């Protein structure tokens, strides 16, 4: 049982209405791995970092069961750097800086030891790189999940459409679903996007939960109403990590099991936003996760007597 995760490992600078950090560990693959390793190991990571990425962070990931044979370390370049500032509602943000650095000429090589993986999580990254990983796999994984963002829709739409033909599940937020489909209605957007390749579509709506579409079915997972939201950075990637972690653990790729997986993803994301960067994710235990999932069950559980 193995899971390959692909994405960025980065430094982030984040400003929210509650504070500011100039340099904190981030990156899509970091969040995905931190979340998914609660459910399944080994996680086989594919990414790239520069000379400045802290060894302690790599060691911490290894301790959690994340294999780093597929993480290239470039001796003379800096790691990917992203900086963002959140608006007061915390649901929207402005990207201030995206310094690709090592990412500019990343040419991932899938290690032989990763071949045969059953699950592939393509975290937010250049679609060309996502496609290259799919093409290097000698056996197609049981499930390929892809996360992306407006940045790639703006600058690499053709590449994104190409890779979409090869994936099973796409994860985007509501704005991105509208941008990709040109439709305002999310139901119409879902139909159009599922016509581009993915059989399943997850539309994340921040503090308003997430929708899972498949054929004519739709399922909704709420987000937990939280008293304190400090920093939403990485919540989408953490959601993806919880989702694929649950699927890889249960090895069940049915729509029914994906419903559970989006609840698990939402539960993990609810921890992520409680502290800056990945700090909270590093603290949580399996029993914290179990009680948080129980809170989700209580949130939507009700009896009704129709007269
Ligand atoms: P999220 O809040 O889930 O969208 O993820 C935020 C994380 O994604 C940050 O840690 C960034 O380092 C990383 N990130 C931001 N922009 C990009 C990008 N264009 N490609 C890949 N990763 C990115």
What would you note in describing this structure?
Strand 6 and strand 7 form a beta hairpin. The strands form two sheets. Strands 5-4-1-8-9-10-11-12-13 form a nine-stranded mixed sheet, sandwiched between helices. Strands 3-2-6-7 form a four-stranded mixed sheet. The chain contains eleven helices and 13 strands. It has 307 residues and is of the alpha/beta class. The structure holds adenosine monophosphate (AMP). The site of adenosine monophosphate has 16 residues, from strand 2 and helix 8.
Short description:
The protein is of the alpha/beta class and 307 residues long. The chain contains eleven helices and 13 strands.
Instruction: State the helical fraction.
Output: 25-40%
Query: Number of helical segments?
Result: 11
* Radius of gyration computed on alpha carbons: 18 Å
Describe the strand arrangement of the main beta sheet, using strand numbers: 5-4-1-8-9-10-11-12-13
Strands, count: 13
Determine the strand fraction and express it as a percent band. 25-35%
Average the pLDDT over all residues and give the rounded result.
96
Order of helices and strands: EEEHEHEEEEHEHHEHHEEEHHHH
Class by alpha and beta content: alpha/beta
Q: Main beta sheet: strand number and arrangement?
A: 9 strands, mixed
* Small molecules held by this entry: adenosine monophosphate
Q: CA-to-CA gap between the ends?
A: 49 Å
Task: Give the overall silhouette.
Answer: globular
Low-confidence stretches: none
